[in-house]
């Protein structure tokens, strides 16, 4: 018994379409594993770790990181909690500033702004549970003034410090404040 040429052609086309669909799905699902540049990697291009590095001004099509607000100035700081706790300290003389903490995958872990902090100065300590227990044995003098963020695991990540520029004449002041911000050890 032989198959008709028309039936063979139809089966061949369906098999080819199914194979193409499977390959397409596998390629799409493998993209996240094969992408070489994450936000964490992009931040490294702007300066050393454990230091706030000012990002260039935001212009359409030339953003240092995706979805940055052109009305703001931005600074980033990469860190690894395995190297020790990270103390963020800044005084930014603008009506609004915020800081976001992101893990190495670029997912937001924590966010804070001057209104929720209840202070004009940013004073925040990020550490692991183990580091906090060690710190409690010999606490720094200003521990009660710090916002303490405790995480279960020693993450690698970055902080994005944003400051609103109310008028272009204030851009230099905001730049200096962001450059003076610190992101280091205790």
Summed up:
This protein is α+β, with helices and mostly antiparallel strands and 186 residues long.
Structure description:
It is a single chain. The chain is an alpha+beta fold. Helix content is 32%, strand content 30%. The protein has helices at 5-34, 39-44, 114-117, 129-137, 171-180; strands at 53-54, 72-80, 86-91, 97-103, 108-113, 121-128, 147-151, 156-164, 182-184. The strands form two sheets. The protein has a five-stranded antiparallel sheet with strand order 1-2-8-4-5. It has a four-stranded mixed sheet with strand order 7-6-3-9.
Main sheet record: 5 strands, antiparallel
Number of strands: 9
Distance linking N and C termini: 83 Å
**Percentage of helical residues?**
25-40%
The class by helix and strand makeup works out as alpha+beta
Number of helices: 5
Strand arrangement within the widest β-sheet reads 1-2-8-4-5
SSE order? HHEEEEEHEHEEHE
Mean of pLDDT = 85
């Amino acid at each position: 018994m032989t198959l008709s040429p028309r039936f063979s052609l139809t089966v061949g086309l369906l098999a080819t379409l199914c194979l193409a669909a499977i390959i397409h799905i596998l390629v799409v699902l493998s993209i996240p594993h094969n992408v070489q540049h994450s936000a964490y990697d992009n931040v490294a291009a702007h300066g050393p770790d454990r230091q706030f590095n000012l990002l260039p001004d935001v212009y359409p099509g030339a953003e240092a990181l995706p979805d940055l607000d052109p009305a703001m100035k931005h600074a980033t700081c990469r860190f690894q909690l395995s190297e020790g706790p990270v103390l963020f300290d800044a005084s930014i003389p603008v009506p609004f500033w915020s800081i976001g903490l992101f893990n190495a995958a670029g997912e937001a872990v924590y966010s804070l702004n001057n209104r929720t902090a209840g202070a004009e100065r940013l004073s925040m300590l990020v550490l692991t549970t183990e580091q906090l227990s060690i710190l409690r044995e010999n606490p720094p003098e200003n521990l009660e003034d710090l916002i303490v963020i405790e995480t279960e695991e020693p993450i690698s990540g970055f902080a994005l410090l944003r400051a609103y520029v109310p008028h272009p004449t204030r851009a230099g002041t905001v730049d200096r404040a962001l450059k003076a911000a610190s992101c280091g050890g205790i």
